[in-house]
Amino acid sequence: MIITAKIMRLSALVLPLWLTLQPVTAPAQDQYLNLPSIGDSAGAVISPAQEQQLGAAFMRQLRSSGVIFEDLEITGYLESLGQRLTVNSENPGQRFTFFVVNEPSINAFAGPGGYIGVHTGLFMASETESELAGVLAHEIAHVTQRHLARAYEASDRLSLPSMAAMLAAILVASQHSEAGQAAMAAVTAGGLQYQINFTRANEKEADRVGIQTLALAGFDTFGMPRFFERLQKNSRLYGSRPPEFLSTHPVTTDRIAEATSRAERYAASKQPDSLDFQLIRAKLRVNNYDNPNQVLDDFRRYLDKGQDSQPDKLYEYALLLTRTGKTTDAQAVLARLHGDDPDRVAYRLALADTYNRSGKHRQALDIYRDSLQLYPGDILFVAPYARTLLDTGQATVAADILKKFSDKEYNNPQIYKLLAQVAGATGRDIQTHRAMSRYYHLNGYTREALEQLKLAARVPEISSYESARIQARTKELEALLEVENKMK
Predict the structure, then answer these.
(1) Is residue 444 included in any domain, yes or no?
(2) Which of 57, 121, 141, 282 maximizes the CB count within 10 A of its CB?
(3) Do 99 and 239 fall into the same domain?
(4) Mean pLDDT across the stretch 357-385?
(5) Does residue 273 belong to any structural domain of this protein?
């Protein structure tokens, strides 16, 4: 089973699995997965906070499978796009976490608690920013309309161990074992027809609410039906393996017609695609090229003919030069782009990266310092700035830069790895172990996260305050580990 199949199962089965799981004897519940039973005498429904807890566990399992794309710049763009939509959604106070899945297949999915994943393939398949926003608005609507919570209510009885079994089944099925396939078959048996009907109703509602969100956010409302229609028309080219999006979000002619009719109710948006959308797509293309040298040759012939000098094309050319080791040439192109558009984050990051790759660390540091004057506290610049300081033997300065970030909560484990490296280089053992504990926890390795806390607790100079914090965190992770062990 390849990664494509893993993510297809994850995105397709998050909702259906909750509909089909059966109850088992409940283990001790902890603050991470303290979920109520559905169908009991109280008739309790899972709360948004409890969905968040389950979503965090879901995210850790995804990370442990190695499919999350932890690029701060690309994730930052997706978060910005997502927040623009969520503030115009039916529940602007809902908490969302947007993340990128390193998968060339075309898909997106909404997990529990507002965790929304977008495949890199969806970025590339979206011809306009409104198309990408349309799919994202659709997934946001699944969350704001609480379709997952409705699934809990629709089930006969859904308790904590059922949730745990669902997550475990997804995790096991993502491996290459027969046991994984057997587990997935067991949890999906018996409710197929109902799950199809339930999904169709949800899809139509998510289209309706999503188009409204698109309009309020200033996007072209036709982005959603246009994307659906193009996928449907091109599906015949895929033979027996259509795009995953069509498998997990069934698209019919009637559905496209209904979405188009709804889009027509809103005034057409005149807003063009953002340049950032095109730059992110360019970066993803360069990242995915199997033969960058051949593509670079093609680019040179194309540009030498003067056929295209669009910023996104020049940016892609510069990234190709960088990837193939031609950093001096890349610097010339990026310096030109930066000069024409000095506030553009992508140009600043790419130019600093070429300087670092060619050993010109001083020039890179100058860009990071100047960028933080424009964008104070932006982790997009803080992280590479601190990393460059660390690489050039300026760990103490790096520690000062990161001091205000050490106690913040991040969804990117690479930030905690950097915090740990800087703390280690400056002899702060407690901070090193605490940061590495966060790193392991976010990646789904609870046992290793606990070991790091135990190491921190044994540091001789530990204060009573630090000791109390570590003890509290240790209890949390021990409770989580207990639940995880019972899921196995």
Answers:
(1) yes
(2) 141
(3) yes
(4) 97
(5) no
Query: Which DSSP string do the residues of 355-417 spell out, in sequence order?
Result: HHHTT-HHHHHHHHHHHHHHSTT-HHHHHHHHHHHHHTT-HHHHHHHHGGGTTS--S-HHHHH
Q: Do 347 and 471 sit in the same domain of this protein? A: yes
Q: Which of 74, 76, 71 is nearest to 375 (CA)?
A: 76
**Which has the higher per-residue pLDDT, 353 or 18?**
353
Domain shared by 333 and 253, yes or no? no
Q: Are 69 and 214 part of one and the same domain? A: yes
Q: Which of 246, 263, 280 is the last residue of a domain?
A: 263
Catalytic residue, candidates 51, 129, 131, 139? 139
- 281 in a domain, yes or no? no
**Domain-embedded: residue 388:** yes
Indicate if 152 and 259 belong to the same structural domain: yes
- In angstroms, the CA 465 to CA 49 distance is 28
pLDDT in tens, 387-420: 999 999 999 999 999 988 877 788 889 999 999 9
> What CATH number did the domain enclosing 361 receive?
1.25.40.10
Backbone angles phi, psi at 52, to 5 degrees: -60, -40
- The domain in which residue 213 lies consists of 3-263
Give the mean pLDDT of the chain.
Answer: 80
pTM above 0.85, yes or no: no
For residues 102-128, average pLDDT: 90
Domain count, the chain: 2
Q: Identify the residue whose tokens are 């590495």.
A: 436
- Residue 207 a catalytic site member: yes
Q: Catalytic residue among 30, 71, 129, 207, which?
A: 207
Q: Helix, strand or coil for residue 426?
A: coil
Highest mean pLDDT among 236-245, 296-305, 422-431: 422-431
Distance in angstroms (rounded) separating the CA atoms of residues 393 and 426: 11
Q: Are residues 197 and 336 in the same domain?
A: no
Indicate if 112 and 239 belong to the same structural domain: yes
Helix axes 253-263, 223-234, angle to 10 degrees: 160
Predicted confidence (pLDDT) per residue in 200-256, tens digit: 788 889 999 999 999 999 999 999 999 988 888 766 555 555 566 666 666 778 888
Convert the pLDDT of each residue in 371-384 to its tens digit.
999 999 999 999 99
